[in-house]
Amino acid sequence: MNTLATRNADLPRSTTQTVTAVRRWTDTLLSLRIDRPDGFRFSPGHYVKLGLPAGADDAVWRPYSIVSVEADDELEFLIVLIPGGAFSEALAGIEPGHPVMLSSSIFGFFLEPQLSPGDTLWMLATGTGLGPYVSLLRTPGALDRYRRLILVHSVRLAAELAYRDELEALAVTDTRLRYLPIVTREAGASALSGRIPALIADGTLAQHAQTPLDPATGRVMVCGNPDFTTDMRALLNARDFVPCRRGNAGSMLFEKYW
Ligand SMILES: Cc1cc2nc3c(=O)[nH]c(=O)nc-3n(C[C@H](O)[C@H](O)[C@H](O)COP(=O)(O)OP(=O)(O)OC[C@H]3O[C@@H](n4cnc5c(N)ncnc54)[C@H](O)[C@@H]3O)c2cc1C
Questions:
Q1: Pocket test residue of 107, 228, 257 for ligand 1, highest count of atoms within 8 A of CB
Q2: pLDDT for 4-46, tens place per residue?
Q3: Exposure winner among 12, 48, 100, 171, fewest CB in 10 A?
Q4: What band does 57 get if pLDDT is binned at 50, 70 and 90?
Q5: CA atoms of 68 and 123, how far apart (whole Å)
Q6: Are residues 117 and 244 in the same domain?
Q7: 137 and 234: one domain?
Q8: How far is the centre of ligand 1, averaged over its atoms, from the C-alpha of 107 (Å)?
Q9: Interval 201-230: pLDDT, tens
Q10: Centroid of ligand 1 to alpha carbon of 149 (angstroms)
Q11: 26: left (phi over 0), alpha (psi -120 to 50) or beta
């Protein structure tokens, strides 16, 4: 996890916000919208800490990537509910009107401008790792420097393909975008199936994207579970992709969720 914090000036350490909408994709996956404090600034790829009451006078805090955009009056998050997880248990019955605490600091280095200029942006996600890419794709002009955008979202079940309608519609209006969903545990639910690293290793993903994965032209963002990010780092290293270091642009960026 990248932990650099930037405090939004003139705001207290945390504020209490109100839930404005809850969209339940499945019993264990939801999008949460909360109102946004005046003066709260961020960029696509940043994450914040959300807090919920837990116990008599305690709170549980967890990091969540922002799905919404600067121009939105509200903040949006894509959140999985983990059985037995402290935050998940506190979040399970969340409804509009409920309070949620929000850190005033924004965190992270999973920021697309850290990548050196390239021709094709590969946005690779497992599960809720999709969130930062939705924020990027919703931000007008954010990806203007690319000729091709390839978004790959891997989930277990088709119902977990959050934002699918929005992304399919975007791929129609922005012909640079190829949206490639992968469903791993429902045979026939998507054109692609299997783990993303394996689909890259055997050339299947490049074939479906109609684009080679090449460090000379490709820039890669990887967000999701630790097995995925670890395997992708090894695979991309072997193909001569270069990590972004503070102050030095590279050709690959990672965000690991646990
Ligand atoms: C930088 C960063 C950004 C994050 N952004 C998001 C986000 O946008 N959406 C989101 O749902 N979570 C995100 N997480 C994970 C999140 O902070 C919590 O860990 C998660 O919501 C579970 O919290 P919990 O208290 O219920 O369970 P915990 O006790 O914190 O976690 C229990 C277990 O759940 C599993 N787990 C944790 N997160 C996930 C996940 N996202 N998908 C599948 N399994 C998971 C792990 O095995 C973990 O050990 C992010 C984590 C980091 C470090």
A1: 257
A2: 677 776 777 899 999 999 999 999 999 999 999 999 999 999 9
A3: 12
A4: low
A5: 17
A6: yes
A7: yes
A8: 15
A9: 999 999 999 999 999 999 999 999 999 999
A10: 27
A11: beta
Domain carrying residue 62:
5-107
Residue whose CB lies within 8 A of the most ligand 1 atoms, among 64, 126, 221, 222, for a mutation test: 64
CB distance 99 to 129 below 8 Å:
no
- 152 and 246 fall within a common domain: yes
Mean pLDDT of 56-74: 93
Give me ligand 1 centre to Cα 214, in Å. 31
The ipTM, to two decimals, is 0.98
Query: Rg for the chain (alpha carbons), in Å?
Result: 18
* Protein residue with its CA nearest to atom 50 in ligand 1: 257
Residue 39 and residue 126 in one domain? no
Determine if ligand 1 sits within 6 Å of the CB of residue 254.
no
Structural domain count of the chain: 2
User: Relative to the CA of 82, which ligand 1 atom is closest?
Assistant: 26
Asked if 241 and 252 count as a contact pair (C-beta separation under 8 A), the reply is yes
Instruction: Indicate the residue among 62, 83, 107 that finishes a domain.
Output: 107
Q: What is the pLDDT of residue 189?
A: 94
Identify whether residues 38 and 132 lie together within a single domain.
no
Which atom of ligand 1 lies closest to the CA of 60? Answer: 25
Which of 55, 85, 107 terminates a domain? The answer is 107
Regarding whether 218 and 122 lie in a shared domain, the answer is: yes
- Kindly state if the Cβ of 106 falls inside 6 Å of ligand 1: no
What whole-number distance in Å separates Cα of residue 8 and Cα of residue 51? 17
Strands 252-256 and 218-224: parallel
Can you tell me whether residue 237 is helix, strand or coil? helix
Which CATH number does the domain housing residue 36 bear?
2.40.30.10
Q: What is the pLDDT of residues 113-139, one digit of tens each?
A: 999 999 999 999 999 999 999 999 999
